[in-house]
Amino acid sequence: MPQRVHIARELAEVFKLIAHPDRIRLIEELRTGECDVNTLAEKLNLPPTRLSQHLSLLRTARMVEERRLGRQHLYRLAQPQIAGWITDGLAFVEARAPAALAGELREVRELWS
Known about the structure:
Elements: H1 2-18, H2 21-30, E1 35-36, H3 37-44, H4 48-60, E2 64-69, E3 72-77, H5 81-96, H6 102-112
Antiparallel strand pairs: 1-3, 2-3
Helix pairs in contact: 2-5, 5-6
């Protein structure tokens, strides 16, 4: 039984870390491969400083890895499977969402697939 408690706490920490809309979008954007901060900021329509803060948190938790190429910093998911968790979570959102969001959910599913 104590192992289950420990594992449950570890999973709760992962869920807390990804429980921010910007980080969810960031993880989904990185699912296709590595990218630099400015490109990510442009794609996600976020200020680079804010994005850097999110990347720092994800890097500290070893969910994101950084590679330097000259002066450029490239980021990628350490375990790309985490993006699959998010895509799988769309089914839960769809089950709870009002019918008016069906079009938006369809667009997101296509974008993230």
